[in-house]
Specification:
Blueprint (H helix, E strand, L loop, with lengths): L2 E9 L5 E8 L4 E5 L6 H16 L7 H10 L7 H22 L3 H5 L7 E9 L2 H14 L3 E6 L27 E4 L1 H19 L4 E5 L6 H11 L6 E3 L9 H8 L4 E3 L10 H5 L5 E2 L8 H14 L3 E4 L7 H13 L3 E5 L5 H6 L5 E3 L2 E3 L12 H4 L11 E4 L4 E2 L2
Parallel strand pairs: 4-5, 4-12, 5-7, 6-15, 7-8, 8-9, 9-10, 10-11, 11-12
Antiparallel strand pairs: 1-2, 2-3, 4-14, 13-14, 15-16
Helix pairs in contact: 1-3, 2-3, 3-10, 5-6, 6-7, 7-8
The protein binds 2-keto-3-deoxygluconate and magnesium ion (MG).
Length: 402
């Protein structure tokens, strides 16, 4: 089955998405997500200038060989732009293979290991009361696991606080918005949030929290300790992880489970974290970590060390990524949880999909392939609209981690 054509589709139904479509001489086509929030055009150029020309004429069934060709053959390995481009090709090829076999992708990967994919939603509010109410709304919708973020007194624009409604979208200005961060205020506030949530919502509901890289290792250790009484499912990205050894310090001090990896793009970014069992959940995802092929390698390493998966699933990962991730999640033996931030109705209309939410679980559906398509005519009605993520500064003006 020869690849005859590949095209990149950029659309902005409320936010920007980049999609690769690969067509074959047998009429079967596949699609892959290539969205890299705030850096979309870099991946578009990488795909159009450097990847598509070498794909034409190759056998679409040779997924592994094409992956190795794009990775080793580029000479320049890894990095978010390269790995998102490779991921898009890989996802589209797995879609093609499963469609050609007439099977949903999870069957090609090894079949279902569970009945559904446990997901967590995002509850946020300007203060603790609003967040507690938002958790209630998610429980009413059937969620069994909920990430909770709230505004912090004395901090303007704390991470994860939306501007109302169910949709939280941090990349919302053409040039990066500047926010102010105060660690002392946050460290005093966060345990109070979870104390209230446990008091109001009980012990059954799984609660998660994203620190979004704001703390130093010793501050993260302190927060982990302070949150222990509230039995979080995980504390995410408590400190930047380029220095994987930093997690040794956090781990030594707390039993709060740790999750990390949404900005990783390769198994090498998390090798130490996994092999030393410094984390409990690895958050690498299909689009930013080289597709199903590479994610499988990361999950395989993690399984040896009882680290479970917890893939990133924010709104800047398109429904194409979500569909592929759900097939992966249904199969992967060491599955933990899947993030699920709902897309807008406009986005769902551009990307018709087979996955569905029921009682706190997502199911990828049984449509052959990964079950997500793109309505190209509708996509064309939403032109690219440049948006960037915010930056954060400490109160004295020092640039910090957003
Ligand atoms: O593009 C950045 C977002 O995906 C990120 O800020 C969301 O941290 C995030 C999460 O856990 O969903
Ligand atoms: Mg996060």
């Amino acid at each position: 089955m020869k690849i005859t054509r590949a095209t990149v589709i950029v659309t902005c139904p409320g936010r920007n998405f980049v999609t690769l479509k690969i067509e074959t001489d047998e009429g079967v086509y596949g699609i892959g997500d290539a969205t890299l929030n705030g850096r979309e055009k870099a991946v578009v150029a990488y795909l159009e200038d450097h990847v598509i020309p070498v794909l034409i004429g190759r056998d679409a069934h040779r997924i592994e060989d094409i992956w190795q060709y794009l990775y080793k053959g580029a000479y320049w390995r890894r990095g978010p732009v390269t790995m998102s481009a490779i991921a898009a090709v890989d996802t589209a090829l797995w879609d093609i293979k499963a469609k050609a076999a007439g099977l949903p992708l999870y069957q090609i990967l090894g079949g279902a290991s569970r009945e559904g994919v446990l997901v967590y939603g995002h509850a946020n509010g300007a203060d603790i009361g609003e967040t507690a109410d938002a958790v209630g709304r998610y429980r009413d919708m059937g969620y069994r696991a909920i990430r909770a973020q709230s505004g912090v007194p004395g901090v303007k624009g704390a991470y994860g606080v939306g501007k109302g409604g169910l949709y939280y979208e941090p990349a919302d200005s053409a040039l990066p918005e500047e926010t102010v961060w105060s660690t002392p205020h946050y460290l005093r506030h966060a345990p109070k949030l979870f104390e209230r949530l446990r008091a109001e919502h009980g012990e059954e509901i799984e609660l998660l929290h994203d620190v979004h890289h704001r703390l130093t290792p010793i501050e993260a250790a302190r927060l982990g300790k302070d949150l222990e009484p509230f039995r979080l499912f995980w504390m995410e990205d408590c400190t930047p992880a380029e220095n994987q050894e930093a997690f040794r310090l956090v781990r030594r001090h707390t039993t709060t489970p740790l999750a990390v990896g949404e900005i990783f793009n390769s198994v090498h970014d998390c090798r130490t974290l996994i092999q030393e069992q410094l984390i409990d959940f690895i958050r690498t995802t299909v689009v930013h970590a080289g597709g199903i092929t590479h994610l499988r390698q990361i999950a395989g390493l993690a399984a040896l060390y009882q680290v479970r998966t917890g893939s990133h699933g924010a709104t800047d990962l398109s429904p194409v990524c979500m569909g592929a991730a759900l097939h992966f999640d249904l199969w992967v033996p060491n599955f933990g949880i899947q993030e699920y931030m709902r897309h807008t109705e406009e986005t769902d209309a551009v990307f018709p999909h087979a996955y569905r939410f029921e009682n706190g679980y997502l199911h990828p559906g049984d449509t052959p392939g990964h079950g997500v398509d793109i309505d190209e005519a509708l996509a064309a009605k939403y032109p690219y609209n440049p948006k960037q993520l915010p930056v954060a500064r400490l109160t004295d003006g020092t640039l910090w981690n957003w």
